[in-house]
Specification:
242 residues; alpha/beta; Spore Coat Polysaccharide Biosynthesis Protein SpsA, Chain A; seven-stranded mixed sheet; 6 helices; 7 strands; Nucleotide-diphossugar_trans; DUF2064 domain-containing protein; Trfase_1_rSAM/seldom-assoc
């Protein structure tokens, strides 16, 4: 399911006639396709259901606004990345923050390990990279190694460790739900256990850069500094100014 995104219209004021100038050379448009399916696993940003560890110091409404900003930043990056398919695996209902070009699928039930496993199981027809919504500082350059045309040459898995001991990205050349089921989630050892599961299965694993998840207010401040031009940073700065 693709949700349209209405960007509205922009009024343009008339300009005085001037001597013609050379048109600027636009930035090259990235190839929208690639060998890999990109999954974003996320929650609908509803107050009281997302980013509860930000409360306090932020209100549930502010925490949800930060979650929505982080999700928008993430989806924008994914929409510009080369991918075979772009899929939002969502707990909740889609909103106007879903860009065009995304399929939206509901998350499965169960614990996080089961939900991640189900997301990979639904896309077992080729290489798949999954990321979350908690790293609004993510960029196309950070994802590029796992999305390159040769990303899966002599590589079976991509792993993006998180500073809190978890992981922010996981890519599998041949998605196998069994590689995720039973991994203890949301602990200081989740990432180590998950990576060990991959290597124990004989997979050749390459690592993406370590990133900081947004879980606490201190995380939010740090990540906003890393991504000063993001919606997330702007939203956080707005709260500080109010």
């Amino acid at each position: 399911m693709s949700v349209p995104y209405d960007r509205g219209t922009v009024a343009v004021s008339p300009r005085p006639t001037a001597a013609p100038t050379a048109a600027p050379i636009p930035d090259p448009i990235p190839d929208p396709t690639g060998p890999t399916t990109l999954l974003v696993i996320a929650k609908e940003p509803v107050p009281g259901r997302v980013k509860t560890r930000l409360t306090p110091p932020y209100s549930p409404g502010q925490a949800a606004a930060l979650a929505e900003a982080a999700l928008r930043d993430t989806l924008d990056v994914v929409s510009r990345a080369p991918a075979r398919r772009r899929v939002l695996v969502l707990d909740g209902r889609p909103g106007p923050w879903v860009p065009a070009g995304f399929e939206v699928l509901p998350q499965a039930g169960g614990g996080l390990d089961e939900r991640l496993a189900a997301a990979f199981a639904a896309h077992a027809d080729g290489p798949t990279l999954l990321i979350g919504m908690d790293t609004p500082q993510v960029t196309a350059d950070l994802l590029a190694p796992a999305l390159a045309p040769d990303a899966w040459r002599e590589c079976d898995a991509w792993f993006g460790p998180a500073r809190d001991g978890g992981f922010w990205a996981l890519g599998l050349a041949a998605p196998d739900p069994a590689l995720l089921r039973g991994v203890p989630m949301s602990t200081a050892h989740t990432g180590a256990v998950q990576r060990a599961r991959l290597t124990a299965a004989g997979l050749r694993v390459r690592d993406l850069p370590r990133l900081r998840d947004v879980d606490t207010a201190a995380d939010a401040i740090s990540v906003a500094r890393q991504a000063p031009g993001s919606r997330f940073a702007a939203r956080l700065a707005g709260f500080a100014a109010s």
